[in-house]
Amino acid sequence: MGFKKSTSIKVMPGVTVRVSTTGVSAYAGRTKVAGTSSSSRRPAARTAPQRRAAPVAPPRPTSLPKPGLLAPKEEKALYAYAVSGQTPGLDGLVLQHPVYGHAAAALLGLQQFREGNYEAAALQLRSAIHGPAPIETNPFVLKYLPGFTYDLEIAGGVIVCLPLTGAALTLVLAEALQSLHRGDEAIHYVEQLDPTYPALLSLTELYSDRGDWDEVLRLTDRVPVDSEVTALLAILRSQAHLELGQLVAAKECIKPLTASKKYSENIRFKALVHRSNISLQEKAYGRAVADLEKILAENSQVQGIREAIAEINRARLEADRQKADAAAQKAAEAQRLREDKAAEAQRQREAKAAQAQRAREEKAAAKLAQKATPVIQTGVISLSDDGADNGEIPEASAPDSQAGNTDKIPGFYPDPEGIAPFRYWDGHSWTSRVRMTQ
Hints:
By secondary structure, the chain is an alpha+beta fold. The chain is built from 15 helices and 7 strands. Helix 9 packs antiparallel against helix 10.
């Protein structure tokens, strides 16, 4: 049916889940510190992950048959490779066989994946998945490998123990494609599976690697947190909220994982590391360090935690330094504004004082000019013919007071200042008496 057409999640038959002891260090290595170049977002594709030793079958009960003397040589060769471990490789003729080649492709693909040969693994696993019939119905698998299991690590520390089925091969193929940076192709294969919790975890991790946080939230909607797998789904959902800036929702998703010791140590440690990342987004460095120190309090051997604490402390010192620099810059800017304001006020005062000084100088100059203008006392302008000596103008020339000639007789003479035609000379000085006619 696939994920696109079903909303119910089933339990994959024959699958068991456990959490590895090395998962937390990977999460701690992705701790996001505000102000640094590190990022909590997972890379587009992972480097070669550490895998379990080998896809081996459990000890075969004595009641299981062995190939008989008359069994086909391809059956005997495949048995020697897959069950007894007597041969390190497979004959090419086995892979070409219509029945045994199907089982051989599945086993060889798992072996290549374990060894890190992801391209070759993807080739063989595709051949097994698209075989003539489901791998679990293959006659060789039914006869010789009824209890075959394969340990596959997904989602950073979650190990699922898978039986030899088409769904299991698809999950391994998706991991191989993810390691080859072909996440879209991996998503296409996983979405064809019936919804099971291991498949849901794999698909959610693939969308998380691609940074499609809305799809991560859609896949994990209404998933109850009641197992190790669903606890990892809650952490991935919290990561999506964190990347979308929804910090309160991010904390709510992992609250059940950090509130009690119901879940395994590594699940709780992953949740504490993730909550530390949320605190870093809030720039709450103290809380971020406290969550990591809780991990050390339970298990001081967890790798990457001390390094993450040291990085957070460096980030806190850098943040404090930046805060102090910002405060100093703000104070300097305020001081500059005060100085500019004071300087402007001083310029205005000086301009006002200069203007007042100019006004005073202009006023003083006006007064001085007024004082320098000759003041002629109001006199009587006589238009009559009477005056000294019957008002006749002496025929003698006008007295020259500048030359000291003061012996002229009193009378009207031409006005030396040119104000009136004639001015009266009293024998000593010019008076204010003037005449307009002779």
